Amino acid sequence: MAQAEGEVKTPKEKRRQASDGNLSESKRRSTSRTPVENGGDPAEPTGTDVSMESSPAGSVSRITEDAPRDHPIWQVRIRHDQHNRQVFAKFPSGDDGKFAKFGVSIAKSVGKEDAERILRLCGAQLLDGRPRKDVERLRTLLANHCAGKDQALPAAIAAWKEGAAPLGPALELTRPPEEKLERRLSFREPNESKEPKEPKTPGPKTPGLEKGQKEKEKAKEPKEAADAKAKAEVTDVDVDLNLVEDAPPDHVAHQKVRHRQTTGAVGFRYKLEDGEVAFQTTIRAAGSLEAALRVARACYLKFELGMSKADVELYRNELYARLGGKAAIRPKDPNAPPRERRERKERKERKAGQPKKRHGEGLLRELQSQGKLQGALRVFGRDPKKKNATVNGVYLPVAGGFEGSAAFERMSQGSDPKRFLFYAKDKARWRISEALGDNRNFAFLKVKDGGRGPPSEAPPEARWSFFDGKESGWKEDAAVQCRAVELKEKKARPEAKPRQEEASAVQEEISSDSDSSSSSSGKEGDDNEESGGETASEAAPAPSAAPGVAAKLLGRGGLSPCMWFCASLHQAVGSWVGQTPSGSQARPRACAKMLARAGLRCPCHFSYRSECPGGPGARGAS
Fold first, then answer.
1. Which pLDDT tens digit goes with each residue over 197-233?
2. R_g of the chain computed on alpha carbons
3. Which of 31, 245, 257, 621 fits as disulfide partner to 62, beta carbons 3.0 to 4.6 Å?
């Protein structure tokens, strides 16, 4: 439509018109490569545009058209994806403030420069309001033109414009939130009103300031550039490669040993009898890339001779020293397990040391009092170190059963997994699974009664089968059993009254015998006093009548272990524990040893009573 006279266009309309005119111009213009003359580079485009029809079929053409310089697409940051080999940018996807990624393949565009131009042309259409599907079709047309698949680009673009949807509202470039600025797309907003700053005139340099400025510039260098610089410095070292033997030119080591540019190391993998090992050499230690390759190939030959990894690492350090480089890190202990395996082993050991969760006897008795333990089963015997050991436990009956047969659910505590025991009619077996009717079972038991009886009533020859892994498959475990839960009744403790009565009866017998013996000894003492003999305190102790009591007790039978021990000891020694000589008062013991209290040793010297230096009349001797 013709524009009315005096009508003023908005900046968005100007940009849209410039973008459409740019695509129209691409119908009449195309690209070609510079003819290789005088050593010229065919990949560099000339400033002269050649019509598309003049390009020979199958030649690689390039896109010389680009988005207008005043278009907002130039404010969008273009990123490079090295892994997927593409360039991409993020554009506003709508009024919700979100951004969508749009990328162009470098391989399909036959060059990074062409891919960036295609991205800017397509991005301009997106910002002008063109639907994304139409822009993706335009991207395909431009990429095919770069690859030489479609030489009639103007006609293809004309057909694309006719079939494309009309332009919608233009998208406004908005800066993402500040907290997400590093992750999301960032835009550089032009500030045309701001006058450019005048360059500062360099003044006299100060040694201290110059050093600080160099440190700041060095800190600003990206990490990748610093690493590349360090690698370049290492590769410039001159080393004598003849000091290291190399593999023959036709040896497989030349194919196995590879240089990893990302890490700056040279390595390979070698298969041993106990598994595959990884081995590497570093450029920094060897002095140069070629030296690192030689050292790696020499180590590969040592692996073929049957040397262990630890020995090859020592050999590698010798080669490093021979080349004048520094030795690598001290070789690890060959018997030491890998870090991941060691950590897994430590976790397993810690888990094994924790107390196992068991259903307490009190809980089972509480369930029994509530009537919930009737018909319960206990599955036990599965080794905790084996797979599917979670089937062990107490299974309570499920109300209603499952498909006409009884079903059980394991008692779980906390985060314990659920386990169900039910009968599967289609397979004629009892299964333990995560849910009722689940075909993925942990264990099964084949029976012939059709599930009429519980698995605890299965014949003894029936065995539970468990899945022990892909290599072993299903195997029978004879140690696993299923039994009905039966709580043993606690036996009432015998009352202490009969034992007390027995002890009192024994004490009465001892006291009566002691009284009779003491009375007879007293009469003898009186006679001795009258005749001028020894006093009662100096008289020898009368023979105790306790051995007769001990004989009575041992002959009676039915004694408790404690009473039987005391009676036996008394019969052997001849006196009761704590019994003092007749007519003497009980004296404090100087030794609390058991043998002294039992009468085998004297409490004064802790020697045998017959060997006591104080004699039979010493303190505490009876």
1. 555 555 555 455 455 565 656 555 555 555 555 544 4
2. 50
3. 31
Quick: pLDDT tens for 319-343.
Answer: 988 888 654 444 445 555 566 677 7
Pairing of strands 265-272, 275-282: antiparallel
pLDDT, tens only, 401-448: 888 888 888 887 767 788 888 888 888 888 898 888 888 888 888 888
335 secondary structure, DSSP code: T
H helix intervals, 2-96: 11-28
Which stretches within 76-152 are classed as H helix? 106-109, 112-127, 132-146
Show Cβ contacts of residue 309 under 8 Å, excluding neighbours closer than 6 positions: 277, 279, 331, 334
Sequence spans of domains, the chain: 11-33+49-180, 232-323, 373-484
- The residues with which 30 forms a beta bridge, in sequence order, are 50
Q: pLDDT band at residue 312, thresholds of 50, 70 and 90?
A: very high
Q: Is 0.70 surpassed by the pTM of this model?
A: no
Q: Which two tokens stand for residue 313?
A: 């690492």
Q: CB–CB of 477/463 below 8 Å? A: yes
DSSP line for 601-618: B-TTT-SBGGG-TT-TTS
Structure tokens belonging to residue 65 = 């058209």
The tally of CA atoms less than 13 A away on the side-chain side of residue 609 is: 16
Q: Which residue stretches of 29-111 are H helix?
A: 106-109
Q: Which helix (H) or strand (E) holds 593?
A: none
Q: Is residue 417 within 8 Å of residue 434, measured between CB atoms?
A: yes
Please choose, from the candidates 143, 153, 121, 117, the residue with its C-alpha nearest in 3D space to the C-alpha of residue 26: 153
